[in-house]
Amino acid sequence: MKKTCIKCLLPSDYLNIELNQEGVCQHCRDFQTTDFRGVEQLLKDIEIPLSLNTSKKYDCVVGFSGGRDSTYLLWYVVKVLKLRPLAVFSDDLFIPEIALENIASTCKILGVDLRAIKHNNLKRCIKHHLNAWIKRPVPESLMFINVGERIGYERLVELEAIKEGVKLIWGGRTPIQEEEKYKAELIKFSQSPGRQGKVDWIMGYLKQVILNPSLAANLFCLKVQYQEFMVGKWKKKLILKNNLTIIHPFYDYVHWKEDEIENLLFNDLQWKVPEGKTNTSRFGCEVDSLRQYLFYRTLGYNDTNVDLSYLIRDGQITREAAKLKLEESLDFSEEYIVYILNKAGVKGEKFIKKLEKKYPSKTI
Ligand SMILES: [Zn+2]
Asked: What is the value of pTM for the model shown?
């Protein structure tokens, strides 16, 4: 295994890492436990949006991806907050069968209405972006691969809430995801602190396109790239105009506890996981699995390093136990990756061979 921070599992070449003389990274040095505001405050803060609802059927809307985080969120809204949510699911056509089964059974067990909305933006873009990316396979441009995914789910929940006359929306953001920012930061032109603005992002994007023009050589994909760049701004406008309230309970109200969540998913919600897997993380969207594999192959780390490092700092897991989990997660099935690539429309084995040439697996 690579050399890492002595307290967490961030490797010594992690983006912008600064290890001190003792070998401790700045994320560990600066870590502060969050002072969560608590459930009572949460219940107080939702009184106003609830009073503005015109829907007789629903109290709120939950963006439901079928992943672990939003499944727990849905359970929490129903069982702890005693609300009647509508679950909105954005189907990007790369959702494995087992995840679809979990989605349906969770909603059934919780007695929640599920609205699944299919969209094909990702499917229409991915072949082009994969073929373009492999011409110059660098981690900085990996963010092109899932173009079309975001445009599908961003604003979807808000539009359904507006349609139903609901003002309260639940979001699944956790402090852990905040740590996964490296994926978006990689493309930035300058990595020096204080220069992390939009201009650096645009310059970084242009740099990747100049170095690999095929990334921008498809008109439809270019349009979707632009839409995804703008979607955050459009979403903000929509929220303001319609007076919607979005709350992320596990971000600042309630402590996210990994163990309790795994227990609940396996026992109360009867989750199924793919054969050979022992935990509930990451078997949602197939394109996300592919990206995690590619981040690992090109950088030597991925979200698992980041997530586990957060849990170590937060005192939820020991470094030793996390190390074992990390090793287990790195046991990628190449067969599955080839299957995803083929499904995306590219020649999977050829793609892996090209990748192997630039990043021989022995060196990781
Ligand atoms: Zn650290």
From this structure: 0.93
Ranges of CATH 3.40.50.620 domains, the chain: 33-300+333-363
33-300+333-363 folds as: Rossmann fold (3.40.50)
Q: What is the pLDDT of residues 260-317, one digit of tens each?
A: 888 888 888 888 877 666 665 666 789 999 999 999 999 999 999 999 999 999 999 9
Ligand 1 centroid to residue 123 C-alpha, Å: 37
Cα–Cα distance, 85 to 63 (Å, whole number): 10
Residue reference for tokens 């007076």: 243
Q: Which residues contact 245 (CB under 8 A, 6 or more apart)?
A: 46, 48, 49, 167, 168, 169
Q: Which two tokens stand for residue 14?
A: 């992690």
Query: φ and ψ at 239, to 5 degrees?
Result: -65, -45
> How remote is the C-alpha of 13 from its chain's centroid?
22
Instruction: Find the 184 Cα to ligand 1 centroid distance in Å.
Output: 20
> How far apart are the CA of 138 and the centre of ligand 1, in A?
25
pLDDT digits 0-9 by tens, 138-167: 999 999 999 999 988 888 999 999 999 999
